[in-house]
Amino acid sequence: MFPTQLTDTRAFDIAQALLGGFDHHYRLFRATSAEAKLRFERGDWAGQQRAQAQRIEFYDTRVAECVALLEARFAASSLPMPVWQQVKLHYIGLLTNHRQPELAETFFNSVCTRILHHGYFHNDFIFVRPALSTEYIENDEPGARPTYRAYYPTPTTLRETVSRVITNFQLRGEFVDLPRDVDRVLAAVQRQLGDIRWRANFQFQVLSSLFFRNKGAYVVGKIINGFTETPFALPILRDSQGRFFIDAALFGEDDLAVLFSFARAYFLVDMEVPSAFVQFLRSLMPRKPRSEIYSALGLQKQGKALFYRDFLTHLRHSSDALRMAPGIEGMVMLVFDLPSYPFVFKVIKDFYPPAKDTTRELVQRKYLLVKAHDRVGRMADTLEYTRVAFPRRRFSEPLLRALRHFCASQLEEDGDDLVIRHCYIERRLVPLNLYLQEATPEQRERAVIEYGNAIKDLVAANIFPGDMLWKNFGVTRHGKVVFYDYDEIEYLTDCHFRRVPTPRTEEEEMSGEVWYPVGPRDVFPETFAPFLLGDPRVREVFMRHHADLLDADFWAGHQQRIRAGHVHDVFPYDPARRFGAS
Questions:
Q1: Which of 48, 78, 118, 148 to pair with 456, CA 20 to 30 A apart?
Q2: 329 assigned ligand-binding residue
Q3: What is the C-alpha to C-alpha distance for residues 291 and 391, in angstroms, rounded to an integer?
Q4: What are phi and psi of 140, to 5 degrees?
Q5: Percent of the chain with pLDDT over 90
Q6: Phi and psi of 62, rounded to 5°?
Q7: Which phi and psi angles does 434 have, rounded to 5°?
Q8: Do the Cβ atoms of 131 and 92 come closer than 8 Å?
C-alpha cells in the first residue's frame, strides 16, 4: 500500500542525494554545451567533436556515481520498499520549482532501476508517467537569459532587426561582411514569404542560444506574420581566416527536420530550461516526436524515456502484430517491427554463419562507436535498451519462432510479457534494395547518386561501412540514403586499401579463389563492383557519378587527409542553398 505519511528520515536524505547527483550531472552537461561557443570562436573543430562524443558518456557515469553513493551511505539495495515509496514522494516535492524536472525524473528512474529488482519497476517506485508539468517553466532570476527573444521590426527597421538577431549572440570575432550577409538573408526571406501583407504583429522569435555541431553554429527561430508561422535557421560558419559568415537561410518544417535529423550528431546547446526549448522546436517541427528533439539536443536518455512511453501508448491503442521486418534477413541481427509504428527493433543473434567472424561484444562496441561518432546525416541513431517487455500476444508466430531459435539467450518469460534482455531501436527506413526494385528511372538515378554520396560522406567522417550492399542502406521520407547496419563498420584510418595484384601466371588469372595474401583489414575497392553493380541500369548511373569508389587511391587519399588532421565540412542542407553557391 502506498504510504499516507512520510515517517522515515532516510527517505528525505536519499531524495536529496539523488537530486544532488542529477544537478551535478546537468551542471557538467550544461558547461560542456556552453563551452561549444568558445570552441566555435577558436575554430577548435577536433575539440568540438571530442566534446560531442564525451558528453554522451556523462549520464551513465553520473548514474553510476550516484548508485555508489547511495549504497555507501544508505545500503540502498537492502532498504525495504516502503522507504523507496517515501523517497519518490520527497523527490517530487523537491522538484516543485526545479527547471529540469523531467530530466531529474528520468535520472531518478535510471538510478532506481540499477538498485531495485525489476519486479518493482512500476508506478509506486519509478516515474512511469511524469509527475510534474513542464509547461510555462522559465528562469525568472534577474539577468537570466529567456528561452527566446522576440523582435518586432517595421518595414523600415527590418534590415537593422536582422542584424541585431545575429549580433545579439555576441560571437567574439569579426564577420567577413555582415551587411552583405544581412542582405542575403533578407533576399531569402523575401523569396520565401513572397508578396505578403505586413500584419500588425509581424515578429521574429529566436531561441536565445546558438546550436553548435561540427564546424557550424545555427540561429534557430520563426517568423510570425498574423496567423502564419515560418520556421527558419541560419548557419554561421568560419572562413580560413577565422571570420564568420552566414552560409545559407533554411525555411520550413522540412528544412528544419533535416537539420535536426536522427542521422546527425547531437547539438551542443546551452539550455537552462530544456523543456521550453523542446516546446519551441516542436512549434517548428510538429511532426517530429519530442523524443527525437530531446535526443537531438544531446539529452538522449530523456529521448529514450519518452520514446518508450510513446511506444507503450501506441501498443495500448493498436492491435496489429509484431512481425519480421521486410527485406533480406540479416546474419547478425534479427530485426522486427510493428507495421503501425515507424521503428524497427534489432536483437543480436546468439549464433552467426561461418562467414561472419564476430561476437556479441564486438557488435555492441560497433554500435557504441556510431553513437559517439559524427554521423554526418548518413548513419541512423539507435536507442539501446535492456529488459524491454512486450505483450507476448502481440508477437506473430513466425517472429516468435525466429526469436526463440536465433535469440534464445535474450528472451525471458514474465507472465504475459516477453522480455528482451538487450535490443536496439531505430527509425524504420525503406531498404534501398527494395526501393530500387520499385523505383521509376528518375527515382533510381537519384537513389544511386545518393547511395554514392552517403558512402563519400562516411569516408570523409573516417568511417568505412564494411558491408556496402544495398540492403544495408535505407531511404528516408526526404529521399536521403542512410546507412544502418553497423556490425562490420571500421574507422577508415584502420583499414588498408589495396589494388588487386596483377596475376603472375595463367593459373592465377583463371583461379576462382583468392590467390594473393589478404590481411584482416585489407580492402580491395575494385572488387565491390560484382556485388553492387549486377543491374546494368544501376551500373550505368553508378559509374557515371561514383566510379572513384572502385579505386583504392580514392580511399587512401581520404585516409591521408584525415591523418593530417583535416576535419571535413558537413552541410545539413543542399550545397546549392549556400549563398556562395549562387
A1: 48
A2: yes
A3: 22
A4: -95, 10
A5: 76
A6: -70, -35
A7: -70, -40
A8: yes
381 is catalytic: yes
Q: What is the 3-state secondary structure (H, E, C) of 303-316?
A: HHHHHHHHHHHHHH
Q: Which amino acid is at 216?
A: G
pTM over 0.90: yes
Is the separation of the CB atoms in 58 and 25 below 8 Å?
A: yes
- Per-residue pLDDT tens over the stretch 457-472: 999 999 999 989 999 9
Amino acid letter for position 71: E
> Which CA distances in Å does 148 have to 207, 280, 298, 323?
4, 8, 19, 44
Residue 430 grid coordinates: 525503406
Which candidate in 247, 255, 381, 487 is catalytic?
A: 381
Report which secondary-structure segment, H or E, holds 51: helix 45-74
Q: Is 325 annotated as a binding residue?
A: yes
Cell 590467390 belongs to residue: 515
How is residue 394 written as a grid cell? 502481440
Query: Is 543 known to sit in a ligand binding site?
Result: no
Task: Quote the DSSP letter at residue 273.
Answer: -
For residue 251, what is its C-alpha cell? 525555411
Please give the distance of CA 581 from its chain centroid, rounded to a whole number: 28
Check whether 326 is labelled as a binding-site residue: yes
Q: What is the pLDDT of residues 107-141, one digit of tens each?
A: 999 999 889 865 545 556 778 888 889 998 988 88
- For residue 238, the SS3 value is strand
Please state, as a whole number, how many other Cβ atoms lie within 10 Å of the Cβ of residue 260: 24
Question: Is 330 part of any known ligand binding site?
Answer: yes
Q: Specify the 3-state DSSP secondary structure of 2.
A: coil
Which residue shows C-alpha cell 516515474?
127
